[in-house]
Design a protein that fits this description.
three-stranded antiparallel beta sheet; Rossmann fold; 18 helices; eight-stranded mixed beta sheet; 3 domains; alpha/beta; 39% helix; 18 strands
Length: 499
């Protein structure tokens, strides 16, 4: 849509205007930023006041989505404004100008975990928000979403270790590709929405980021390729065809079949040790436990899996959520759409919908490690490092008993011990080991387990610690070792102990 020269000129004007993430956030202040998080522009308007400098003009044009004086836009963007008019990204509204696509500053490394990362100037190009200031404007079918809570969560859960190849499946505005390019040698980004690829091209070009953009559905554009990392927030909404489907959130397959294909076909395109990470939802079908149903998707892939169900919604909650998302909660035909959607879910025996994270790794294990858990608890974001540690923990826990016992384990630095008991009691009634990072797991421990974990400082092998505990507790050493070895394996798998 825009040439490299066009993008260069536009970027120069954005930088000259101070239209960058740190500068704009400073200008709007905490109140303005928090207001925009609520889709309210009033606090930001109060922060800008009556000023008409280039930065304020661009904030009004693209962030507040106002009609802006044409002369002010020209002062801010120079000849780049004519290019945006010619390409249909700006439109005249009498003497004013409106944006038909939004360009927002973005801190590309805001959700990564590297201690040496520095914020790079980046911008996201997407369609205008349909719900600012309480508006409820139904989006068009080819609407391109900007940075959403879902896309932020996917960025936070992505494992950021260096990889040679990465796939951003269903790239939308291109935000995941911005992050992937920081640790992947080559990034491929796909989408079946031509408008999404056009706007993602602006996102990547303005942000000086290279990615191979390809048009097509699911894995069709990459049928001959394999990847070390695949990330996706696919169109996972389960809806009837009569809703007037939105490309960014709904496919044309029944139920959660699209998500199943993203998972199963994606697993087939992973390199050895490659990882697939998907943020999605799935159907909870009458008479079928959700974890057993998803296991039937995953088991044939031969991959290790960590699936976390973060939330569940009943059909009524689900339909209300997505009708409101499409701006249809106040439409005259809302009751009819609501009932039609409920009937569709009932026809597919869907009694609830699970929302969560699917992580697969092509570990090449004869017996894959499958863990599917309800996990509605708070986690410590960004979670990507913890998911990488979990993969390593699975490898460690797969060792035989002799190797586990011979290893000099260390307690993870994020583990805290909590004791619960009656005031003045000699011994606690409960001992809890709690993770203060990552998933924030907690496990109850008896005296022996707590002592084992507490003694793991890398100096002694686990077998030596257990032998010392047996002497201290005056119990048989072999019996204590037999009792603690399975618990040791689980503590390693859950990340309480590291090598």
């Amino acid at each position: 849509m825009l040439s490299d020269a066009d993008l260069d000129r536009l970027q120069e004007r954005l930088l000259a205007a101070g239209y960058t993430v740190d500068a704009v956030l400073e200008r709007l202040g905490e109140s303005g930023r928090r207001g925009l998080d609520r889709n309210s522009t009033t606090p930001a308007r109060d922060a800008l006041g009556a000023t008409d400098d280039p930065q304020a003009t661009l904030v009004r044009l693209w962030i507040l989505q106002d009609a802006v004086d044409a002369a002010a836009v020209t002062r801010a963007l120079g000849e780049a404004s004519e290019t945006l008019f010619n390409k249909g990204l700006l439109a005249r509204d009498g003497e004013d100008v409106r944006a038909t696509a939004v360009i927002r500053p973005y801190g590309v490394d805001a959700v990564t975990t590297s201690e040496t990362a520095t914020t790079t100037h980046a911008w996201i190009c997407h369609d205008p928000l349909p719900n600012l200031d309480g508006r409820s404007d139904p989006p068009t079918p080819d609407h391109v979403l900007g940075v959403s809570p879902a896309s932020t969560t996917l960025a936070q859960m992505t494992i950021r270790r260096p990889v040679a190849t990465a796939l951003d499946l269903g790239t939308g505005c291109g935000v995941q590709s911005l992050h992937l390019a920081r640790h992947a040698g080559r990034v491929v980004a796909t989408d079946l929405n031509p408008r999404a690829l056009a706007l993602a091209n602006i996102t990547l070009g303005l942000s000086r980021t290279d990615a191979d953009l390809r048009l097509g559905s699911l894995y069709d554009p990459v049928a001959a390729d394999t990847f070390d990392l695949i990330v996706s927030n696919p169109p996972f909404v389960i809806s009837p065809p009569s809703t007037g489907r939105l490309t960014y959130r709904e496919g044309d397959l029944p139920g959660d079949e699209l998500v199943r294909r993203v998972v199963t076909e994606g697993a087939a395109r992973l390199t050895p040790q490659g990882t697939l990470q998907v943020l999605c939802n799935w159907a909870i079908v009458d008479g079928e436990p959700w974890d057993e149903r998803l296991a039937t998707w995953i088991r044939p892939t031969g991959c290790d899996a960590l699936v976390l169900q973060r939330e569940t919604l009943d059909p009524h909650e689900y339909v209300e959520l997505w009708l409101a998302d499409a701006g249809l909660d106040a439409a005259p035909d809302h009751p009819a759409r609501y009932r039609d959607w409920l009937d569709y879910l009932a026809a597919h025996r869907i009694t609830g919908i699970g929302l969560g994270w699917i992580n697969l790794r092509n570990a090449g294990r004869a017996t894959p490690d499958l863990r599917l858990e309800d996990w509605p608890f708070d986690v410590h974001q960004p979670i990507g490092d913890a998911l990488a540690e979990q993969q390593h923990a699975v490898d460690l826990a797969a060792r035989d008993d002799a190797s586990l016992l011979a290893t000099r384990w260390r307690t993870h630095p994020g583990i805290k011990q909590e004791t619960i008991g009656r005031p003045g009691a000699e011994d606690p009634e409960h001992i809890v080991l709690r993770q203060t990072t990552g998933l924030g797991r907690a496990t109850e421990a008896d005296t022996a387990v707590a002592a084992l974990v507490g003694a793991c400082d890398g100096d002694l092998a686990a077998s030596e610690i257990i032998a010392a505990l047996a002497t201290l507790l005056d119990v048989d050493a072999d019996a204590l070792q037999a009792e603690l070895t399975p618990r040791l394996r689980q503590l390693i798998a859950d990340g309480y102990l590291i090598d």
